Amino acid sequence: MRQDPAGRRLGVVLVLGFLSALGPLTIDMYLPSLPTIATDLQTTEAAVQLTLTGTLLGLALGQLLIGPLSDAIGRRTPLLAGVGVHVLASVLCVIAPNLAVLGTLRVLQGLGAAAAAVVAMAIVRDLFSGFAAAKLLSRLMLVIGVAPILAPTIGGTVLHWTSWRGVFVVLTVVAVAILAATALFLPETLPADRRRSGGVTGTLRDYGMLFTDRTYVGLIVVAALAFSALFAYVSGSSFVFQQEFGMSEQQFAYVFAGGAVGLIGATQLNVRLLRRWTPAQILSSALISGAVFGVVLLVTATTGFGGLAGILVPLWLVLATVGLAMPNAPALALSRHGEAAGTAAALLGAVQFGVGALAAPLVGVLGNSSTAMAIVVAGGMAGAVVVLWTVVRPSRLPVDAGDQPVMAVAH
Question: Does a structural domain hold residue 406?
């Protein structure tokens, strides 16, 4: 092991950003095409939304498998294999003949994207801790935030020139580029002497150990509930804004980008806020504010007060509070289990995407209306507040002053 120069460190961080963006791109790029897919494959809107649920389930289950594997054999091999699976699934999505096949392939896409998500998170924990980890996660959220801005816009543009199948052609090209960048520029970050080789028994023991940590479990549930509010918006927004408010695919892409701007801005504001407040303080304030804005959204959606603006303003404010919660809850959770970072990150991601997978179809079941979306958004934020204060108890979280990165890689 040896210290890396600043230039190589920047390269690693950039690749981590691209890996972190693969999941959001996979989820968001085809959102403008959901109504079109329903028509083309002669199925219902709720059934098409299940393809999004399949992707989220793949992301959840994949992380549970790949996280412990990366703790045992290192980060690079599971990562490259997972992104390779994503490439193959994306190619097959282009020629999917029906919704059942498309849904199955979307699960495989999720499994591939899971490798990128969980290993990127574990690498952050390999290299950084404490405040430094929270700051880096905030920077990665900038890249992750750009993906939701670009993805529906790209998807809408592709639909302007071709069918929804062209969206998966673009996803294939993106995944191939990410695979190449990872293979060329991302070194192994988990030295052999830090790997865990307990097999299935060891993996189960590690998961059991994590479940005994009440604070860790509470933090990942908090992160998951905030995530559910985000995915309620992701799954329902195309139907709400294109059908209820009559927007075109391109107009929807611009509105979706507006929400992503708020999310991105909040993640970058978090870096400045960390200079004065702890991650726990920021997380508490963000979730309480998000719950209040969620209630306002529910009122305006139910009453129709304010029209489109009455929906967009509180919705974007909720997304901004999620942007503040997203870096801090994972950083606080992972800081407790650096000895099993891959497994800890896997459970975090699996719970996040698992809860998101439940939230996505729930909006459809409730009617794909602004009220349905508001119910799930407000419920997710309110639930996060309850769990934070009854299970985690912010006052009991230690103030971690570990602000120095531990930037080294294995050779």
Answer: no
